[in-house]
Amino acid sequence: MKIAISASGKDMSSEVDLRFGRAKYFIVVDVETGESVAHDNAQNLNAAQGAGIQAAQNVASLGAQAALSGNFGPKAFRTLVAAGIKAYLCGQMSVAEAVKKFKAGELKEATAANVEGHWA
Question: Is there a contact between 59 and 43 (Cβ–Cβ < 8 Å)?
Fold first, then answer.
């Protein structure tokens, strides 16, 4: 299973970026093998609008079955759900910690957006 984590940097020691749509990077991790690959999200970082939708579409195209972030806006959340991707909330921690908590079943699955659109 692949999961995508919004991240402030390119490696597993980076902090989780609490913004999903405007995260600097997404780190896609294969939870079975531990392999991870960072993907730049620069095109959405400064987007006037639609960052959440585009980010969710990008996560889907990367083959992720789950997304981890601090916050999900309404458009991003709807796009993830439409793609069959589950959203999980995590606070301020490293990407490696978020993956560990996900694998242990310690992260809360989001059932709705937890912030308004255009959250900064």
Answer: no
Distance CA(77)–CA(101), nearest Å, equals 21
**pTM given for the model:** 0.92
Contact criterion met (CB below 8 Å) for 16 and 96: no
The alpha-helical segments, DSSP class H, found in the chain are 42-45, 51-61, 74-82, 95-103
Domain residue limits, the chain? 2-109
pLDDT in tens, 23-75: 999 999 999 999 999 999 877 656 555 678 899 999 999 999 999 999 999 99
> What's the Cα-to-Cα distance from 74 to each of 20, 30, 51, 110, rounded to whole Å?
11, 26, 11, 11
Mean predicted confidence (pLDDT) in 77-92? 96
Q: What CA–CA distance (Å, rounded) separates 85 from 77?
A: 9
Q: What is the CATH number of domain 2-109?
A: 3.30.420.130
